[in-house]
Write a structure and sequence with these properties.
single chain; 228 residues; alpha/beta; Rossmann fold; six-stranded parallel β-sheet; 6 strands; 45% helix; globular
Length: 228
């Protein structure tokens, strides 16, 4: 019987209910830059890194600021915004699942498009930082999701093969990254507009209450997708 070796979580929207906050922050920053970013375009950036987003926005809107300057402005504003929030919510069911995984001796990692500083704030404020063996960002990996680099790097750091990893994602870009890394992917349908784009996931759930740790192990074990 096949068993997983590690569990890798996306952060925003999966571990932490922070996607709506990021979205509002970006709308404020777009307004400050004097650009009108449509809802459709804004949604395409979900799950990607700020480097990817601002490189694309600079080309589309002929922004005079350099990408590095845009990233610095964003990081300072986003850091202060999150740091001043009274409360940041962990998604329901996450803590109990993390406890079961940790108790069972599996490796745990975060693979996020947020910066290291933002990841540290959110994971510490939600009191889940200590559960993870590694926190890996797309900054460190060198490429944004949907490229698989951040997931491949996370697997390397915790010392497991990609095909032994169960990934939790909530965005189409994140799902593409996980599948490209040849990892088993559980998609969290936190945004109803993404349902069709998440159908390629191995499992599709609306929240963590819909699946148990035992069911995850069983479903992964009977999947022969990565067996040679």
């Amino acid at each position: 019987m096949r068993i997983p070796e590690a569990f890798i979580f996306d952060m925003d929207g999966v571990l932490v209910d922070s996607e709506p906050i990021h979205y509002e922050i970006e709308k404020i920053l777009f307004q400050k830059l004097g650009i009108n970013v449509s809802e459709a375009l804004h949604h395409t950036y979900l799950g990607t890194s700020n480097d990817f987003m601002y490189s694309d926005l600079k080309k589309r809107f002929n922004l005079t600021e350099s990408v590095s300057d845009l990233l610095m402005i964003d990081e300072l504003f986003r850091y202060e915004y999150f740091n001043n929030l009274e409360a940041i919510s962990i998604n329901e069911g996450v803590i109990s699942l993390l406890k079961e995984i940790k108790k069972s001796g599996y490796k745990l990692a975060v693979a996020t498009s947020s910066s290291p500083a933002i990841a540290n704030i959110l994971l510490n404020r939600c009191e889940v930082f200590s559960y993870f063996d590694a926190i890996v960002t797309t900054n460190e990996a060198g490429k944004s999701k949907p490229a698989p680099d951040v997931y491949i790097l996370a697997a390397q750091i915790i010392g497991v093969k990609p095909s032994g990893c169960i990934v939790f994602e909530d965005s189409p870009n994140g799902l593409k990254a996980a599948k490209e890394a040849e990892m088993y992917c559980v998609a969290i349908q936190s945004n109803s507009g993404f349902v069709k784009e998440l159908l390629n996931a191995d499992i599709l759930i609306r929240n963590f209450k819909e699946i148990t740790f035992a069911e995850l192990i069983e479903k992964f074990s009977i999947s022969n997708k990565f067996l040679k």
